[in-house]
Amino acid sequence: MTPQARAQAAIEILDAVIAAARDAGPAADTLVQRYFKARRYAGAKDRRAVRDLVYAAIRRAGERPESGRAALAGLAEDDPAVAALFDGAPHGPAPLSPGEPRAPAGVAPKWLAARLAATLGAGDLAALLERAPLDLRVNTLKATRSQMRAAFPDAFDTPHAPDGLRFPEPFAVEASAPFLAGQVEVQDEGSQLLSLACGAAPGMTVVDLCAGAGGKTLALAAMMAGKGRIIACDADRARLARLAPRAERAGVSIIETRLLDGGREAEALADLAGAADIVLVDAPCSGTGTWRRNPEARWRLTAERLTRLTTLQARLLAVAARLVRPGGALVYGVCSLLPEEGPAIAAGLDWPADEVEIGAGTPAPPGIRLTPSRDGTDGFFFARMRRPC
Ligand SMILES: C[S@@+](CC[C@H](N)C(=O)[O-])C[C@H]1O[C@@H](n2cnc3c(N)ncnc32)[C@H](O)[C@@H]1O
Question: Name one GO biological process term (predicted).
């Protein structure tokens, strides 16, 4: 592909990303993959160059642009090399005209930036859009961190999580022998720290209420040395189905899965009332803390969607509280830095908060906050609250 044809491809993918953000469609990564699946002629270098253009244009535009061409034209304002691609060459974009729309630069939609600014400084906000490193969690049921450091010579230890390895550049870790042998999992250091904050130990009964495909469930199982009981729940059948093969690869046999019906969670969990040593609520959220990986997520969020999410979060917290035994703990977490999804929801539970010793984070009572700028992780809020005896 010529550089101009790559620019045109980026515009077409950006059009799809913008439509998907508006209509709750697939993630940008999926759309990039789909585009190239239908265009086998594009080589690895073309794919990388187009992908880089797409993500640079997404990162730069705080508000959802009106078109892919406007998004790339915005990028052209900052980058003369991109501007030069609008030269009318065959298969490339038509030249830019003076009056045509160019997406303005920004970190987030105005309404959202204003809410984030309540707790974050300008530097913290900008860091939400930096490129994230690739983090792995060593599965201590199968390997040690020093063994895995030897297996991956480019890796270095994550600064805070004791079982984490970090790579400055992404690579195809899923094809590596340690991954296939279940010795490592891909997991951001912030997620590792949230799992650690649960304080799970061998022999415990743990409910992971929003387990998804089980990233944190597997971390909890490793902390429990494969002994005890984990009930991994989710309302999304497809996500939950991805847990079993991962658990098998990781050598974990203490996980039961339970598919929940949204709105009827308490009934499906009635047998566990007051029985859990720990309940983790890794709640569905706006994902403002994960913009480093999904920068287009900031084009998806609306004030109405945020209200729906906070209502669901408060409801799931109440469902979870009923499962905790006296003296047990409820850990509430979100990968969001919006106060209304974090501290405001957790404070709705009138239980004392534990001090969580993880060597990272900033106090955000009743819990702590992790930020990309200060902690080098995705953005998270989490709190561990103890049910009075
Ligand atoms: C932040 S994600 C969980 C990520 C997961 N814990 C991990 O570590 O990979 C939130 C999850 O909540 C699930 N969810 C949404 N509504 C739910 C409900 N009513 N009950 C339980 N889970 C729900 C979503 O399907 C999603 O998988």
Answer: methylation
